[in-house]
Amino acid sequence: MTLLLQSVCWTLTLKACVQSYLALFPICLLLAAAQPAVAETVLHVAYEDKTQFPYYMGETQRVLEKPGAAVELVKLLEERIPGLQIKFSRYPWKRCLAMLETGQVDGIFNASYNEERTRIGAYPRKDGQVDPSRRLTTISYHLYSLPNADLGWNGKTFANPDLEIGAPLGYSIVNDLEDLEVSVMKVRSSMQSLQLLIARRVDAVALQSVTADFLLTRNADQLSGIVRIDPPLRTKPYYLMLSRQFKAENPELSEQIWNAVGQLRQEKLEALSQSYLSESTTPPETMVNPGEPTTTSM
């Protein structure tokens, strides 16, 4: 009899435990759903809606299926930094700069360094100086002109400052040219600059050579006869800039991002670029001023 009572009591206790568990189970599910599995940070990054071959492709505000080497490199940050998600947008470059300043986007690329831009965003730094080891890439600016143009460029100054030179609006080379005391016609894009040169509305144009050479190759029927002038105007490191707001809220993550950009540039950029460069052909004819140097320092 005692054994029977013990069995009954054990059965009733087990039934009560099961009922209690079933009552608590929905509450446990709700609590679990309220907790994110992994903390995730969205980095909203903007880049120009014009071609900057091979770094980004297409005259469009869409992010293309084959977007460009720099876009692919920035996307790889998701693999290097757990919990980071990249969101891309494309705008005119001047708007990219404005949106970075107001914090509407968290980052922009490719951005060269100049002191004026430090008030609108942050660059990677080391010992108080901008850190080129964490750059995204390096790009040269060249002058482009029609044959036999008398520009008088010697790598440092213009012998003939009475020139009208076209350059894209918002690009850092505009300030560089103005510092050299030449007149600058600011235009919407690299392609429009070259079209103005063909129309002889400017004496020369100042463009990033990777972009200009690509445009001249792809539009040889419209832009025939244009030559590139050596030595280059400037050779500069280019960065992923972060907004002041993002860096203030995420100081450690910002350093992680810049570190990863530097590593990815060394490990991946050449191979990423090659898939685009292999589609291009011979660059335009280059004219070198006799007796002048053919390189400039970074």
Descriptive overview:
- The protein is α/β, with parallel strands linked by helices and 298 residues long.
- Helix content is 38%, strand content 23%.
- The protein has 9 helices and 11 strands.
- Strands 1, 2, 3, 6, 7, 8, 9, 10 and 11 form a 9-stranded mixed β-sheet that branches. Strands 4-5 form a two-stranded antiparallel ribbon.
- It is globular, with a radius of gyration of 28 Å.
- The C terminus is likely disordered.
Q: Mean pLDDT across all residues, rounded?
A: 86
Number of strands: 11
Q: Give the CA-based shape.
A: globular
Count of helical stretches: 9
Through-space gap between termini: 97 Å
Question: What is the alpha-carbon Rg in Å?
Answer: 28 Å
Q: Determine the strand fraction and express it as a percent band.
A: 15-25%
Low-pLDDT residue spans: 289-298
Category from helices, strands and their pairing = alpha/beta
Provide a short characterization of the protein structure.
With 298 residues, the chain is of the alpha/beta class. It has helices spanning 2-34, 69-75, 77-80, 93-102, 173-179, 190-198, 209-218, 244-249, 251-277; strands at 41-48, 84-91, 107-112, 125-126, 129-130, 137-145, 164-168, 183-187, 204-208, 227-242, 286-288. Helices cover 38% and strands 23% of the residues.
Can you lay out the helices and strands and say which pair or pack?
Blueprint lengths: L1 H33 L6 E8 L20 H7 L1 H4 L3 E8 L1 H10 L4 E6 L12 E2 L2 E2 L6 E9 L18 E5 L4 H7 L3 E5 L2 H9 L5 E5 H10 L8 E16 L1 H6 L1 H27 L8 E3 L10
Parallel strand pairs: 1-2, 1-3, 7-8, 7-9, 10-11
Antiparallel strand pairs: 3-10, 4-5, 6-9, 6-10
Helix pairs in contact: 2-9
